[in-house]
Amino acid sequence: WRKTYSNSGIEEAAKRAGAKVVPAHQESYYKTVSIPQGKRLKTAKIHQAIVDSDKWINVPVLKNHGGAQLTISMKNYMGIVWDRGFFHANDLQQCIADVCTYEKRPVLNVVDAYRLMKTSGPKGKSLSDVVLSKGLFMSQDIVAVDTAAANFFNQAREMPLERVTHIAKAQELGLGTMDLDKLNIRRVRI
Questions:
Q1: Could you tell me the residue range of the domain that residue 61 belongs to?
Q2: Total domain count for the chain?
């Protein structure tokens, strides 16, 4: 993880900004929490920084993902859990929706769609996998923001919302709405 942070420039940018980079490469950094609303997942090991936080903001990069179809806000929770292998082996889409019911939810979801990875995700193979789309989505409603971002992604590469089933599963769990017509959406062009 250190090599990745260094090579990506995140380490240097974090130092300049006075930020603290928190490691996540050992199980000891995670705490078992209850997921009482989960259909498949009843507990999860969540990173201690999230468990101990007063508030947290979820900032995923919109991209294709082989297993989950898309990485958006809900799929980004995979970055705060320890046992991702369990998720992949036990209905990944349901586990993603389930873990989002954890009581300490993000106060804001900010989806970075400035450059989206349309294929070969989550890692990508070449620059041709990336599209300059200049999008940004923000909402406190994790289902709504993922719905809007998935619809946006569908313009770059066919990815019907029905294939990203964790979004509908999260709506069924009461985490938000997929009906964007019910929301007060502000579109800003810069």
A1: 26-182
A2: 1
Extract the tokens encoding 184. Answer: 């007060």
Query: What tokens does 92 get?
Result: 């990944």
In sequence order, what E strands does 73-127 have? 108-117
Whole-model pTM: value is 0.90
CA 57 from centroid of its chain's CA atoms: 11
Question: What's the start-to-end Cα distance of the chain, in Å?
Answer: 34
Residue 46 CA to residue 34 CA, distance in Å, equals: 10
Q: Find out whether 142 and 170 touch, Cβ atoms under 8 Å.
A: yes
What is the separation of C-alpha 10 from the centre of its chain, rounded to a whole number of angstroms?
19
Q: Which residue shows structure tokens 């019907």?
A: 160
- Distance of alpha carbon 71 from alpha carbon 122, whole angstroms: 8
pLDDT in tens, 106-132: 999 999 999 988 877 677 777 888 889
